[in-house]
Amino acid sequence: MSRRAPIWERAVSYAAVGATRAPDLMEYPPTGYRPLERRALIGHGPARWEHAWTETLTWGIQQRSGFRVEVVETPAELDRMGYTPVGFDDDGSPIAPAVVDGSGERIYAADGRPLLRPGDTAWLGIPFGPLRLRFPARVVYVVDEPNRRGFAYGTLPGHAERGEEAFVVERSDDGSVWVSIRAFSRPGGFFWWLTSPVLRLTQGFYTARYLRALATPLAADTAPEAVVPQPADPAAGSAAAAETRDPA
Q: For the DUF1990 domain, which residue ranges apply (predicted)?
């Protein structure tokens, strides 16, 4: 669909919707796309977990990383409906169409902020020299498990890239809290192909920010102990990413 269409009418600009869920994403990414996976320890305990998942499901990671998030209001007749993206099998073939149903009830965090749900759409703005670039994206799925929460967004026409990025926080049995970033992408058009080295550097820059975004000290009344990110192997020398996977 044209990038001139209202943002809430645009379809995502790639085919493999939901592929960031695939356990073998790094080995078998969608054809023509470059995968990425990062994971970092961001803290420990109930307060850190509550903070992490709430921020993740309210665009907090993006906002804390320097993005300006402009949520797009969907027309009321569509906002009352739930959105389920296309389903894919292990080979990436579509097996279930996207559907809209009447179960899309809006849920709010304790502080009153609306939690993300599939179908939510936003402009993500970043500074670029004297300019501020805006890129459209849509939430394609939400993870809501007792110890694992997050979401993924897909790019829309008009974005610099095509692909998907997932932001998931997890709580381990020992109470440690981790954030994982998984993505696959490629430049979104001819101009962006010409600037692909810059795109790749920009992606790396913001991914590093994502990993630090939820590790800042919490307010004294909610978190008497603040834990900064720690690498899985202190000898590795990375203060942000405990685990890194990237193609050679």
A: 13-79, 114-213
